[in-house]
């Protein structure tokens, strides 16, 4: 093929518009957030789809080139990998379909094998490597003073995104200008686009602040998050529905995200896979969640057990019969 596939981590860049050169760099010049070009190796029996900058999925074939970014993933239920684990021969994997690139070091037996890639080079211009952070446009930093509906979970796949869509939909029906955001996690644009489909006027995630995932050094995350919050504040929304990917106990800097928006959180939803998981995460929170949802609340028995174990109320947000009660809770939290 003539041009490489641009993955969704490149959506903040001008790589497609302005072009670039490809040059192999010595290992000591590699870093998280570097834009790199990789070649697809033998793809038989492996995940072979990529997420493009607009969120559309496409299949790739052996010897196709793609542009992604070095990063880290520490998913408890799926895959663990890091750009620093790439071996001397340059073999690596697509840690997410969005173009988060590194080498898998641990993989769930229930997950299909990740795409095998070969390092082809860094994206370069004028002897300078191109990076996610270097692609950010300068903006005016704005004080963040927006009511937040915060969604956290006991782990990944706990129901956060599904619950978030319901909340965005209800708030939008109330006539509010809603912005959706994913503050932590590993790159994937699909979740945020589903918030937009549900009625959000704009959506953002950590990629918009130049991070391939939020599993980065704490100081770097503290530097990046105000940029993301300023992008959100610039939209002047009535409310922000913010998802913290994974759980605050995992190494995605969820605790820092919570700390930086704590005074603005009006309602906290905890999504859990089962009632017993609620107990452990509840002990780690400095503030008791206002409601429990997710798999733990899929049945009346689960809802009753959540209340018995923790004293917390839970709702099955997959059922529309719960939405009127949820709307009452949201209106009360937001003073609407």
Biggest sheet strand order reads 15-14-16-13-17-18
Tally of DSSP β-strands: 18
Q: Count structural domains.
A: 2
Low-confidence stretches: none
Q: What CATH architecture of the largest domain do you see?
A: 3-Layer(aba) Sandwich
User: What is the alpha-carbon Rg in Å?
Assistant: 20 Å
Mean pLDDT figure: 91
CA-CA gap between termini: 55 Å
Instruction: Give the amount of beta strand, in percent.
Output: 25-35%
User: What CATH first level of the largest domain would be assigned?
Assistant: Alpha Beta
Put simply, the count of helices is 8
Question: What is the chains' assembly state?
Answer: single chain
Shape: globular
- CATH superfamily of the largest domain, called what? P-loop containing nucleotide triphosphate hydrolases
Order of H and E elements: EHEEEEEEEEEEEEHEHEHEHEHEHH
| SSE class | alpha/beta
Helix percent reads: 25-40%
């Amino acid at each position: 093929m003539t041009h490489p596939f641009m993955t969704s981590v490149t959506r903040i860049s001008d790589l497609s518009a302005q072009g670039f050169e490809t040059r192999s760099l010595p290992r000591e010049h590699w870093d998280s957030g570097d834009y790199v070009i990789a070649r697809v190796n033998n793809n038989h029996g492996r995940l072979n789809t990529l997420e493009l900058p607009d969120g559309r999925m496409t299949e790739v074939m052996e010897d196709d080139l793609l542009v992604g970014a070095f990063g880290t993933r520490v998913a408890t239920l799926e895959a663990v990998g890091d750009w620093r684990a790439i071996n001397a021969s340059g073999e690596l994997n697509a840690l997410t379909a969005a173009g988060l690139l590194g080498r898998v070091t641990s993989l769930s037996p229930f997950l299909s094998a990740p795409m095998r890639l070969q390092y082809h080079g860094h994206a370069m211009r004028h002897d300078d490597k191109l990076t996610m952070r270097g692609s950010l446009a300068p903006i005016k930093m704005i004080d963040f003073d927006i009511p937040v509906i915060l969604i956290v979970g006991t782990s990944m796949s706990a129901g956060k995104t599904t619950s978030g869509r319901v909340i965005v939909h209800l708030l939008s029906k109330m006539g509010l200008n809603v912005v959706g955001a994913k503050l932590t996690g590993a790159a994937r644009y699909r979740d945020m686009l589903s918030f937009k489909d549900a009625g959000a006027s704009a959506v953002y995630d950590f990629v918009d602040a130049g991070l391939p995932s939020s599993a980065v050094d704490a100081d770097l995350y503290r530097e990046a998050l105000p940029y993301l919050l300023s992008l959100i504040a610039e939209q002047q929304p009535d409310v922000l529905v913010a998802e913290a990917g994974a759980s605050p106990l995992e190494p995605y800097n969820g605790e820092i995200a919570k700390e930086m928006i704590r005074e603005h959180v009006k309602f906290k939803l905890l999504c859990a896979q089962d009632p017993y998981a609620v107990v452990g995460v509840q002990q780690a929170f400095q503030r008791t969640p206002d409601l429990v949802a997710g798999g733990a609340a899929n049945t009346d028995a689960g809802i009753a057990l959540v209340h018995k174990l923790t004293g917390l109320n839970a709702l099955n947000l997959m059922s529309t019969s719960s939405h009127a009660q949820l709307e009452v809770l949201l209106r009360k939290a937001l003073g609407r």
